[in-house]
Design a protein that fits this description.
2 copies of one chain form a homodimer. By secondary structure, chain A is an alpha/beta fold. In chain A, 27% of the residues lie in helices and 27% in strands. The first copy, chain A, has 10 helices and 15 strands. In chain A, helix 4 runs parallel beside helix 5. Chains A and B meet through helix 6, strand 13, strand 14 and helix 10 of A and helix 6, strand 13, strand 14 and helix 10 of B. Strand 14 of chain A pairs antiparallel with strand 14 of chain B. Chains A, B: InterPro entries: DAP_DH_C, NAD(P)-bd_dom_sf.
C-alpha cells in the first residue's frame, strides 16, 4: 500500500505543528501545503518552525487551486478557522475534488449544534463525493465530551454530568493571549463580552450537543456564560502578562437542559499561571448515575499538542469511515499511532492507491 | 422502525441482569431466552430475580434449537462462559442462523490474543453470514484497555503505560468468591496456581493485545502472574469470608513487551473489603508520553453493573457495524442509552424490519 498522502491547509501554530508531527511518523507523506501571503511559494520546510525535511521531496506552499486536485492526496487537514461558517467553503472545495477532510475548527466538532443547515449540506456533499469530513481536537473533541461519553458506556442510567477542565494558558502564544483577554482591564472585558466580541472557549454548544446526541437525550435548552478571572497578583507567562486587578483568564460555564432539568454542567476556567494562586489544574468527569463516576486527570492534558495529536491520530479513521459528515461519536476511539500509519488503513478506502 | 429484538442466551447473574436492565429501556424487546436445566419451560419473568414483566408478552425459556431461528431477533446476548473455546460453538450457531451476537466471555474481548485461529474463523463466518460478533464488558472491554487507548488519542508518542484497577470483590456472589479463592489457605492457593486451576482475572492478554494492536505496537512477549492477597485481619463480605492468614483476594500483574522493552504494565488487585485494611479502590491510567496522562477514578467503577451496561449499550453498535468479528477498538465509543434504542440504529442494518 502506498503511504498515506496528506495535504496541509493552513500552516499556523496548529497546522504547522501537525506537519512537524507527521514527519516523525511512518507510512505517511505530506504531499502539499496551502497558505496565504508571505508563505506562498516558499518551502514548507522553511515556513514551519522546527520541522525537518530529511530526505523528503520538497513541498512548495501554494494556493488551494494549485494544490487541491483530484487524486492528489487521501486527506486534507484544514487548520484555518474556529467557526463552521468560516471554514465551510474550504471543506466543500476539498470534498468536491474527491478528498477526505479533517479540520481543527472547534464548531466542526459537532456542527449540528450551531449550524444544522451547513452540517446537513456538508453531509450531503460528502456523500455525493464518496468522502468523509470530520472536525476534532482536544476540546471540543475529547476531554469535555468524548471522554465523558465513554464513561457513560459503563452506566445503566445517567442522571447528571459535570464536565470540568481547569487548565493553564501559559504554554500558548500571543493569539490565544489576545483571544482570552489576558492583561485586559475588567471594564474592557465586560464591554467585549456585552457586544459579543469576547471569544472565550469555543466548543461548549458542540460538546453538549455531542453528549446529548450520543446518550439519546433531547436537549431543551443550552446556555453559557463567561466571567473574567481577575488576578490579585501580577502573573507572567512566556507570552502573557496580567497585572494585579487585570484579567488573567476566562471562566466559562455552560448548562444543558433535558426534560426541563439541568443535566449537564460544563465548567472550564482557563488562565495563565494558575499554580501561582494555588489553582490545581486538571480534567474532571463527575457522573451521577448507576454506577457513578468520579474521574480526574491531573494536571490537565496539554491542549496544544493534544489537539495536534487528535487530528493526526484520527486521519486513518476519517479515511476508513463510510462517506458523510462524521463526529467523534461516529468513529472508533482515537489512539496514538505508534507504528506505520498504513497498518490502520483499510485498503479499499484509500484514495491514492 | 420496529423495536430492537433481543434474545438472551444464559440467564445467570450476568445474562439475567442484562435482561432486567433491558426491560427498563425504550425501543427494545426481549423476544427469546435460552438456558438449561430447571429454568427450561419456565417464564423468563419468573426465572430472573427482580425483573418485571409489566404488560409484556411472556417469554418462555427454551433450548437454542427452539429459540434461535432465522429472523427471530436482531441480536443474541450470550452470557454463558469466560473462554473463547467454550463459547465458540454458540456464537457460530447464532451467526449461521443470520443474527448478530454479543458475548460477555472475557477472552472474546480480543480473541486474537489467545485464540487467533478461532478469531479468524469467527470473522470468516460472520462475514459469510453478513452479521457481526463482539465480546465486551467492563474489564476487559473498557477500564484497563479502551479507556487507556482513548487517552493515547491525545498523545504524539507513548513510551510506557500503567493500567491499574484496584477493586472490591465485596458486591459479588458465591461464584466469584470461589473463583478468586476467597477464604482459601495460602497453600491451597499456591497449589491451584501451580496446576493452572486458579482462575484469577481473565483478560490481561486480551487487554494488552487490544492496546498494542490499537497503537500499532508489535507485541514481543506477554507475561502475567498472580499472588494471593493474604489478610492480617478477618474480613467478611456478604458472600465471602477470609480469616486472618487466609486469602482475601488475588493480585494479578501483567507485562507487555514491545521491541524488547516492557511498555505496558497491568496491575489488578481484587479483594473483599479493601477499605478495612486502608486500601483505596480506583481505576488508574498512567501514560509516560507526550503529553503525559495521570488519571484516576475513585472509587473504581462497579464491575457487575458496569459489564451489564457495557453489553446493553453496545447492542446498537454491533447491529450497525459492517459484518465480521469486531472488538471495542473497531466500533464507536460505548455510551449510556438514555433514549429510545431505535434512535441509535441504522435502519438498513436492522434484521427484524
Amino acid at each position: 500500500m502506498k503511504n498515506v498522502k496528506v495535504i496541509l491547509w493552513g500552516l499556523g501554530a496548529m497546522g504547522g505543528g501537525i506537519g512537524k508531527m507527521l514527519t516523525k511518523k511512518e507510512g505517511v507523506d505530506i504531499v502539499g501545503a496551502i497558505d496565504i501571503g508571505a508563505k506562498l511559494g516558499k518551502s514548507l520546510y522553511d515556513v514551519v518552525p522546527g520541522i525537518e525535511r530529511g530526505n523528503r521531496e520538497d513541498v512548495i506552499v501554494g494556493t488551494a487551486e494549485d494544490v487541491i486536485k483530484p487524486g492528489a492526496a487521501d486527506i486534507v487537514v484544514v487548520c484555518t478557522d474556529s467557526f463552521t461558517s468560516k471554514v465551510y467553503d474550504k471543506l466543500v472545495f476539498v470534498m468536491e475534488r474527491g478528498m477526505n477532510v479533517i479540520t481543527s475548527a472547534e464548531e466542526m466538532a459537532f456542527p449540528q449544534a450551531q449550524e444544522p443547515e451547513l452540517a446537513a449540506k456538508l453531509d450531503e456533499i460528502a456523500k455525493k463525493n464518496g468522502v468523509t469530513v470530520l472536525g476534532t481536537g482536544i476540546n471540543p473533541g475529547l476531554i469535555m465530551d468524548l471522554l465523558v461519553i465513554l464513561w457513560t458506556g459503563a452506566c445503566e442510567t445517567v442522571d447528571h454530568i459535570v464536565s470540568r477542565r481547569v487548565n493553564s494558558l501559559s504554554p500558548f502564544g500571543p493569539a490565544v493571549m489576545e483571544e482570552q483577554g489576558i492583561g485586559m482591564e475588567v471594564e474592557e472585558f465586560n464591554k467585549k463580552k456585552a457586544d459579543g466580541t469576547m471569544a472565550g472557549h469555543v466548543g461548549f454548544a458542540e460538546s453538549v450537543g455531542m453528549i446529548t446526541t450520543a446518550l439519546g437525550w433531547k436537549l431543551d435548552k443550552f446556555e453559557q456564560d463567561m466571567e473574567p478571572i481577575v488576578t490579585d497578583v501580577d502573573r507572567k507567562s512566556p507570552y502573557g502578562f496580567a497585572k494585579a486587578g487585570q484579567v488573567a483568564g476566562v471562566a466559562m460555564k455552560g448548562w444543558g437542559y433535558v426534560d426541563g432539568e439541568m443535566k449537564i454542567e460544563m465548567d472550564h476556567p482557563q488562565q495563565i499561571e494558575p499554580e501561582q494562586v494555588g489553582v490545581h489544574t486538571g480534567d474532571y468527569v463527575e457522573i451521577k448515575g448507576i454506577p457513578p463516576v468520579n474521574m480526574c486527570n491531573t494536571p490537565e492534558i496539554e491542549g496544544g499538542i493534544g489537539t495536534m495529536a487528535m487530528i493526526l491520530n484520527t486521519i486513518p479513521h476519517v479515511i476508513n469511515a463510510r462517506p458523510g459528515l462524521k463526529t467523534m461519536i461516529d468513529i472508533p476511539v482515537p489512539r496514538a499511532i505508534m507504528g506505520d500509519m498504513r497498518d490502520q488503513i483499510c485498503e479499499e478506502c484509500k484514495i491514492v492507491k
